[in-house]
Amino acid sequence: MTPQTPRTTPHTDALTLEVVELVGTVVARYHEEYEEAAAKHSLTGAQARVLALLSREPMPMRRIAQKLKCEPSNVTGIVDRLEGRGLVERRPDPDDRRVKLAAATEDGRETAGRLRASLNFAREPLAGLSAEERTTLRDLLRRMLGETP
Amino acid sequence: MTPQTPRTTPHTDALTLEVVELVGTVVARYHEEYEEAAAKHSLTGAQARVLALLSREPMPMRRIAQKLKCEPSNVTGIVDRLEGRGLVERRPDPDDRRVKLAAATEDGRETAGRLRASLNFAREPLAGLSAEERTTLRDLLRRMLGETP
DNA sequence: TATTGTTATACTCTATAACTATA
DNA sequence: TATAGTTATAGAGTATAACAATA
Question: Kind and range of the H or E element at A38?
């Protein structure tokens, strides 16, 4: 079917371009809703990401920077602001006195939980798909991401 | 099938959570590669988005702000910087002297073209899917986005 | 009076470089 | 010496409010 599709440039045919555009739309909408959900809790996007990270487990400052793919110096300010609001605290690392472990406080974990709940609601479009369709989508996304289990 | 899935919370079952996480990964990777491609042309993400917009058609400043979902005052600075590099120019609107039309220059259109080419390369993971799989992915993404044609 | 674009201001995020305290 | 975190600095994006020109 559709034999006129050139095999030498498989990523520039009309179908692929349409999928690329759809992915772009998903990305845009995802980001809008993430920022919106963060703003409802008076958090910036970066602060929300760090808080979500720390709500799972405490982490050295350096590791946060790696997760965020930014310079370590930036993390200082972000954690400063979260700490100023009582959502995060800095603890010493017993094994290495150079390291500071950033950890979510009880209040921070609560906020992170509410944030995640509102995000899940934002992602609800998936509810429109049947279980079988979600399975198909999962497999296609996995393959797209290079996970070939 | 899978009747144990609670119908009251269809967006919190394990399958959906996995898809949500995969979508999150796609979003993260898409953004990384977009910023990276922009940086290769010495552009920030916002500048690249505006340039891509204007390479298609000239546009009032106000409309750029709507497309970017930001305040109009921000667009002034972004267009200033693009204009300072000769990629964009401001033209008067013949129909309304309050309006300034931002338009990509020849140089700007060229840069936007190279940017898009490098983006298509970045999105090449789609090439790993067959035409049929891409069609399926397209339809699922469409439905996820609420487009029901 | 309402709208368009701009300016002024303040805050956040970002990268770079230099500093400190540990290792 | 090498590493972890911080500080200092500068540039960019963001929202808000006030302004000039035009409708």
Answer: helix A14-40
Mutation site for B-interface testing, chosen from A4, A5, A12, A23 by largest number of B Cβ within 10 Å: A23
- Alpha carbon of A61: minimum distance to chain B alpha carbons (Å): 21
CATH of domain A35-122: 1.10.10.10
Chain B 12-31 residues in 7 Å CB range of strand C: none
Q: Supply the pLDDT for residue B40.
A: 95
Cα B18 to Cα A142: distance, rounded to the nearest angstrom? 10
For B80-120, write each residue's pLDDT tens digit.
Answer: 999 999 999 999 999 999 999 999 999 999 999 999 988 87
| β-sheet bridge partners, residue B124 | none
Cβ–Cβ gap B145/A128 under 8 Å: no
d(CA A52, CA A104): 9
pLDDT at A5: 42
- Interface membership of B123 toward A (CB under 8 Å): yes
> What is the CATH class of B28-141?
mainly alpha
How do the domains of chain A map onto residue ranges?
Answer: 35-122
Question: In terms of DSSP H, where are the helices of chain B?
Answer: 14-40, 45-56, 61-68, 72-84, 106-122, 131-144
**What is the structure's pLDDT at B2?**
41
* The pLDDT value given to residue A119: 84
Where helices occur in A41-129 by DSSP H, the ranges are 45-56, 61-68, 72-84, 106-122
**Which positions 83-122 of A are in contact with B (Cβ < 8 Å)?**
120-121
Taking the CA of residue B70 and the C1' sugar atom of nucleotide D16, their distance in angstroms comes to: 12
Contacts of A83 (CB under 8 A, 6+ apart): A89, A90
